[in-house]
Structure formats: structure tokens, C-alpha cells
Fold this protein.
Amino acid sequence: YSAIIKVDSVNASELYSRGQQWFTETFKSGKDVMQIQDKENGKLIGKGFSEIAISEMGTSQNQDMYYTVSILLKNGKYKVTISDFYFHYEGGVDISVETILNRKMQSGYYKQQYYQLDKEAKGLLASLQKTMIKKAKEW
């Protein structure tokens, strides 16, 4: 998932601050999520985690989904990429999004994982965009 968004009349420094604010508001511990905070080069990269619910045969189970969020900032615009998705299962087994895409036609469970992944990623993109267009006095 990737998008380039224009934010007219907002410099890279202000966008950087807004990006940091988004990480803090979006994840329980923004500091633990952040992998790279490079204001000089306009780069924020974090490893995110979401818990999603998968329902199958009348039962619901929470599933841990991990991903990387990269935000590259310039004056008047930013590029966000959400990538490297994987699901973590009990017993230390990780399943990549590629595996889920390959299996989504075989099982309702994988279809739901894909649907929830898509929904979560689009929600993160929308949430970031909302934060990035806010003026400082709106915080």
C-alpha cells in the first residue's frame, strides 16, 4: 500500500512533526514502534502491530498482524508506504501476506485475513492523511 499526498503550504519540518504525532496517536507506544526518525532527511519508519478479529464457523479469534510504515517527507508532500505484512501465530509461526494471497481462494479463513489486512491498511492511510492535513492549532 503506497500513496503520495500533497499538503500545500506545509514544509517538511511540520510534516515530520505531524508524522511523529500520528505514530504516537495510532500505536500504544509510538516510541517502541519507531525504527528510524531522521528529521534531516525527512524519514519516519516504524514497525506496527494490529490485532484483527477473524470469524470462522461461529467462532472469533484475534490474530496478530505486523507491518512496516514508512513516511518520506518533503515540502508540500509526503509518501507513505505500508508493507512487509505478516501474521504471527502461536508457536512462533509467521505467515506472509504472499502466502495469504495464494491461499485466499482456498479458504474462508484466508479470505478474511486478506479482507482484514486490506481494511486495516486503508484505515491507516486514511488516519495518516487526516493527521497530516491538520493545522497545528487543531491538535
